[in-house]
Amino acid sequence: MATTEETFIELGNNLPELPDAEVLPVPAQPIEPRAMRRRVLNLAGPIIGENFLETTLGIIDTWLVAGLGAVALAGVGSALQVMFLLISALSALAVGNAVLVAQSVGARDLVRAGQLGRQSLIWGAIFSIPLALGGLALSGPLISIFGLEPEVALVATQYLHVTMGTVVVLVGLFIGGGVLRGAGDSRTPMLVTLFANVVNVVLAYGMIYGHFGLPALGAVGSAWATFIARGLALVLLIGALWRGRNGVTIRGKGGWLPDVKDARRVLQIGVPAALEQVLVSTAFLALGIVVAHLGTDVLAAHRVAFAALSLSFLPGIGFGIAATALVGQSVGARRIDEGAAAARVATIWAAIWMSAIAVLLFIFAPQILGLFSNDPAVIAAGTGGLRMVALLQPFWAVLFVQSGALRGAGNTSFPLKVSGTGIWISVGLAWLLVTLFGGGLVAVWAAFLMVAPVIALLMWRRFQRTVREFPAA
Questions:
Q1: What pTM, to 2 d.p., does this model score?
Q2: Distance from first CA to last CA of the chain, Å, rounded?
Q3: Are residues 147 and 290 in the same domain?
Q4: Top-ranked range on mean pLDDT: pick from 21-25, 218-222, 293-297, 342-346
Q5: Residues 185, 404: Cα–Cα separation, whole Å
Q6: Same domain (yes/no): 135, 278
Q7: Confidence band (pLDDT; 50, 70, 90) for 349?
Q8: Rounded to an integer, what distance in angstroms lies between the CA atom of residue 446 and that of residue 434?
Q9: Which range of residues forms the domain containing residue 349?
């Protein structure tokens, strides 16, 4: 495989585009239900595929590192907890940029959409370079917070040193993918992710264990493999953006100097979305601490339930991002009724997919746990909790899509308040149920089941209100 930058840019240029009819602003006449369904599915499908690839890659990386022993696995896991929080914070530029690009596309102002893409990439570099340098300097102190054994802390620090250096590349990937999805092209980010994942798996195997003539770097080899794969993926995405997708391109002489006004607009939308993700991430971290007090068997079962949860979320996340793009386009075109129709279709399909997953989780809970552990105590501890997770799926489907629709309309503060408050209320209830009644995982996830329907209803009602109050075209 050729390795020059020009070759990768050319490969990005040759990635297939979605037909313009699927992504450009809606026509003057109301769109037919079948056409709307096709638009939603064409946009959401690749997003689900992309997220599935990312999830699968994480599982494979964990499996490869696990072959080095418990010390390596614990060290990498601790470093990744820091990265997860950082990724949540870095999503601000990507979310705000995707919404504004979608709205510009809806308004048929493709020049403005390209300008926003350029500005977001510039500001992403401005924000991420100091962050990466600071992370490199503070890797040791950050890892020391976990109170790890010395050998585990060493692995975690070395791993974090490399991954913090990838922050600039990671921000570029977030923004590049956001621009493309805002323009209605979710297929290119998926194909780029597929390419990067194949490269990552090959390099990780080679650099962890010293195969293919590569140095045996141990656990840190996984970090270097991810760095290289992400770098290649960024070159591909930049190449696609330079060539242009559906009329949106970053090519051009103007607009490359930082514009504070554009940055302010992006951050006004993006910062609440980023804070929401930080609140959710820290809440689940706190939930892990609550569950840890229930014993090793329960904690192990909880980790399995979380793995199932990460997979069950994929349809909701995919249809939610599709709703963000399509509602954003409808706002730009001043046809919010089309955005409402897109959100309705996305909600129905997310609910169908996640309900189907729920049925599988409920029926085959013992067997799913058995795939990860043959310990009868772990299976017994986790079966009820996994079935409770299954009952949550339809409510989370509504929550994901309706919050995505609100973001497309430019309202990221309401999802922040409702989701951020709801997730912490759920964790607090879980702690109370475990403390007062001594419940296991069933009690933990029952707390979420008490709150999820309320959050979903609030999100749905707020978007319906947004549609009603939207100014007439």
A1: 0.80
A2: 52
A3: no
A4: 342-346
A5: 17
A6: no
A7: very high
A8: 11
A9: 269-473
